[in-house]
Amino acid sequence: MKRRFVVEPNSSSAEPFRALRLAIESRPGTKQTKGLVFTSPRRLDGRSTVAANYAVVTALVQRPVLLIDADMRNPRLHEMFDLPRAPGLVDALRDELEPWQVAHTFPSFGGLQVLTAGSPLSSPGDVAASAAMGELLARAYDEYEAVVLDSPATLGAADAFGLASHPGTDVVMVVNHSGKRRHVASALRKLVLTEANLLGLVVNREGTLAADFS
């Protein structure tokens, strides 16, 4: 099976994501967090890669872990893990299915389960903050030790804020080292205005990560 941009757990390329996991877990109050929304100011900041590999290294030590492609506009996780896009999140919401009923399991990654975005949706912006999404996440938080959500960029859509509005859900902002400061500042202002709980920033720089969760 060909997996794009997903690290081999025993390789040196997995170490930055292990360091990220430790940084998040060592932050006070994070033990009460079940859901982590990974977002970024703009597309192509490396958000999906960071979210996917964070979920991989977390699943190796903390089972079970569910990785959800909550970017219903431009989903990528099905390509990264060589999976069909549907059925997935949209289908589970529509048909009132449990996440595990449509998720794909990867035994080589500690039993990581990946829930793809699912069938195309005409108005995904209304879904992230919906009661149905909240109910699905609540069930996932009961079933899994950790739930990682890959969300659209904050400057292109409000989905990340909708996802963060559900109880037990915090935000991690992935920033590209070459990104413009005004984009980062604007994204952070939006998080503050929506009262999302931001755990910290991850700077993505050519295969290395620098995390600030102080």
User: How far is the first residue's CA from the last residue's CA?
Assistant: 39 Å
Order of helices and strands: HEHEHHHEEHEHEHEE
Cross-sheet strand order for the largest sheet? 3-4-2-5-1-6-7-8
Averaging pLDDT over every residue, what do you get?
A: 90
Please indicate the count of domains: 1
CATH top level class name: Alpha Beta
CATH homology-level superfamily: P-loop containing nucleotide triphosphate hydrolases
Strand content: 15-25%
The outline comes out as: globular
Helical element count?
A: 8
CATH fold node name: Rossmann fold
Structural class, from helix and strand content?
Answer: alpha/beta
Write the layout of secondary structure elements.
Blueprint: H1 15-25, E1 35-39, H2 47-59, E2 65-69, H3 77-80, H4 89-95, H5 99-102, E3 104-106, E4 112-115, H6 131-143, E5 146-150, H7 159-164, E6 169-176, H8 181-193, E7 198-205, E8 208-212
Parallel strand pairs: 1-5, 1-6, 2-4, 2-5, 6-7
Antiparallel strand pairs: 3-4, 7-8
Helix pairs in contact: 1-2
Please explain how this structure is put together.
This protein has 214 residues and is of the alpha/beta class. The chain has a single domain, classed as Rossmann fold. The chain is 33% helix and 20% strand. The chain is built from eight helices and eight strands; from the N terminus they run αβαβαααββαβαβαββ. The chain has an eight-stranded mixed beta sheet, with helices on both faces. Strand 3 and strand 4 form a beta hairpin. Helix 1 packs across helix 2. The chain starts with 14 loop residues before the first helix and ends with a strand. The mean pLDDT is 90.
